Amino acid sequence: MESSGVATTGLGIKRFALNPSFSGWKMLVLIASYSFLGYKLLNFNQYVELAAQWKQMPLSQAWWLVAVLALLPLNWLLESLKWKMLTSRVQKITVRDAVKAVLSGISTGFFTPNRVGEIIGRVAFLEPENRKAGVTLSILNSLTQNMVMVLCGTPAFILFFRVTSGITEINKTLYLTVLIVGLLILGLFLFTLPQWSLRLKNSRLSRNLKSYTDCLSGYNRRDLFHIMGVSLFRYLIFCTQFYFMLQFFGIELAPWQAMVAIPTTYLFVTFTPSIAFSEAAVRSSYAVLVIGAFSGSIAGIALAGICIWAINFIFPMLVGSVVLVRKRN
After folding, report:
1. What backbone phi and psi angles, to 5 degrees, belong to 113?
2. Which range has the worst mean pLDDT, 62-66, 148-152, 163-167?
């Protein structure tokens, strides 16, 4: 999904940030990514359904797929612009390098839980002395995107269960309470980050954290609102892609149904721990659960979820792996 979980920094990532020579890391990550991709493709059991659906597809439906593909560059360009904005106070990078960093991050995050490995690919395009700050900024990037998904997904979640009450056993009150409390905590944390960074900077406890947290003190609330704005725009793009893909597979949804079902689906996907290569199954299962409340075409919904994942992640992952291999230390 387009959704990206809040990244956490592991021992390997810390070592990577400290060591400018990471050819071994690149090869290990790429081998693991392609191994998982191969495993997923070999174990995909819906090729027959996909071929049958494709044969029945009228030519006029192809325009929906063209529209999905046309939005793909815009989707990742927005993510790249956001990364450029985030790193601007630490290191000035070009849009081209930002695109390379984002695509490389897709490759390195492909086999890690909630794409935490994206950090490795992204900071590869920063100077060695700025890579610790890059780890923090990558986490902040994920945090802003997740907040947008919660902000847009929570109202859709409420409407979905009001319209389709009783179709699922999910404890909606508990789930909604946790989301709202989590959103408030994340919002408070996000918009007070610059102040916390300044306090840590002057604290004795900051010696070990300084190189990771100093980068946050240069931001103000206006900067963070701009970053949130780009996150919102990108969210609208990949929601539109999903809608177009559903149309491609002949899933007829009224506009209000799409506005309820798609954000709800992404909300569930965002807060479900997963590995990028397994997100296809997670995404399609939630799509069937939520969108299936408005349409009986279960096979088409499942295939739409799988295909939107493949377009938005497999192709960028392949391109990103080439970029990463060509990146010199």
Report:
1. -60, 130
2. 163-167
Q: Compute and round to an integer the Cα radius of gyration of the chain.
A: 20
H or E element: which one contains 179?
helix 172-191
Amino acid code (one letter) for 124 = A
Contact 298, 292 (CB under 8 A): yes
List the chain domain ranges: 11-326
Cα dihedral 160, 161, 167, 173, rounded to 10, equals 140
Over residues 78-106, the mean pLDDT reads: 92
Cβ-Cβ contacts under 8 Å for 116 (sequence gap 6 or more): 5, 7, 8, 10, 13, 109
Q: What's the mean pLDDT in 32-58? A: 63
pLDDT of 247 strictly over 80: yes
**Residue partners of 173: CB distance under 8 A and separation at least 6:** none
Between helices 23-42 and 315-326, what is the axis angle to 10°? 160
Whether the CB-CB separation of 150 and 266 falls below 8 Å is answered with no
Tell me the HSE value of 308 on the side-chain side, using a 13 A CA sphere: 33
Q: What is the DSSP string of 248-307?
A: HTT----HHHHHHHHHHHHHHHHTS--BGGGHHHHHHHHHHHHHTTT-S-HHHHHHHHHH
